[in-house]
Amino acid sequence: MLLPLVAALGLAVGSFLNVVIHRVPRGESLLRPGSRCPHCGTPVAARHNIPVLGWLLLRGRCAGCGQPISPRYPVVETVTALLFVAVTARLGPTPALPAYLYLAAVAVALAAIDIDVRRLPNAIVLPSYLVAALLLFPASAATGDWWAAGRGLIAMGALLAGYLAIAVACPGGMGFGDVKLAGLLGLYLGWLGWSALWVGAFAGFLLGAVAGALLLGLRRADRRTAIPFGPYMLAGALLALFVATPVAAWYGSLLTLTT
Questions:
Q1: % residues pLDDT > 70 (the chain)
Q2: Other CB atoms closer than 10 Å to residue 152's CB: what's the count?
Q3: pTM value surpassing 0.90
Q4: All residues at 6 or more sequence positions from 199 whose CB lies less than 8 Å from its CB, including other chains
């Protein structure tokens, strides 16, 4: 029964994330005005605000002016729901589950914003440190594993320092938004364990390198093209949630064979 409920929650959260993605970069309120067409200003009817279904009912067009509605709206809602289900299936009904559901939601919003405007807004990243602490530290208290919280703080500092060093050494190669995001991801990954930390950090660079090579190969970018790194950092962190344990075991077996 938990997974269907989490899927429904993910759809609802995804609907709200669409508002966040559109309004936060513009400095607009998330509460007022209500949802409306960006072309003609027609308010969105309640039945058309149902995640995914509303877009399908409208056939992807505004009910007022008939202008196309981006398919990204149902995509964001669906991806958020799928991530919520996957994270819940991985962690189960544990005290840390709300923290990682929040991470999944923030990952969707920040990735979309970074792709759109090449920026990771402080309005989302900085408050997420507090939210993470308020969710992860009580989870440590509930399980009696205070070392998880301490490990998360150490990992947060380590990734902050590492990314800051890269940003200072290679001006223009990495933004300070990435540095601030790195600390947040370090807190989440470190809470899971050291293997999650190094797998998540490495996966972000690996995914970014592969994507960059593909864009160069397809001539969609050149060596001077600015490519947002935030989505790959976030994807790497979420990937570590699922594969860190088997990857660490595989790497450990390789070390055993070579000794």
A1: 97
A2: 24
A3: yes
A4: 236, 239, 240, 243, 244, 247, 248
